[in-house]
Amino acid sequence: MSEQTPMVQFKDVTKIYKGKTPAVSHANITIKKGEFCCFIGTSGSGKTTLMRMINRMNSITSGEVFINGKNVNNLNPVDLRRKVGYVIQNNGLMPHMTIKENIVLVPKLLKWSQEKLDQKAKELIKLAELPESYLDRYPAELSGGQQQRIGVVRALAADQDLILMDEPFGALDPITRENLQDLVQRLQQKMGKTIVFVTHDMDEALKLATHIVIMNDGEVVQDDIPENILQNPANEFVENLIGEDRLAEAKHDTVQVKEIMLTTPVKINLGASLKEALSLMKQRNVDTLLVTDDDDHMKGYIRINRLEHRYHRASSVSDILESDIYTVKPTAYLRDTVDRILKRGSSYVPVVDDNNKLVGIVTRSALVTLVYNTIWGDTDPMSSAELSKHQKDQVTKGADDDHD
Amino acid sequence: MSHLNTFQQLLYYYDHNGMYVLQQFLRHFLISIYGVLFAAIIGIPIGIFIARNHKLGNFVISIANVIQTIPSLALLSIIMIVMGLGVNTVIMTVFLYSLLPIIKNTYTGMRNVNANIIDSGRGMGMTNWQILYMVRLPLSLSIIMAGIRNALVLAIGITAIGAFVGAGGLGDIIIRGTNATNGGALILAGALPTALMSIITDLLLNLIEKWLQPTGMKKEA
Question: Which family does the UniProt entry place this protein in (chain B) (predicted)?
Answer without folding.
Answer: Belongs to the binding-protein-dependent transport system permease family.
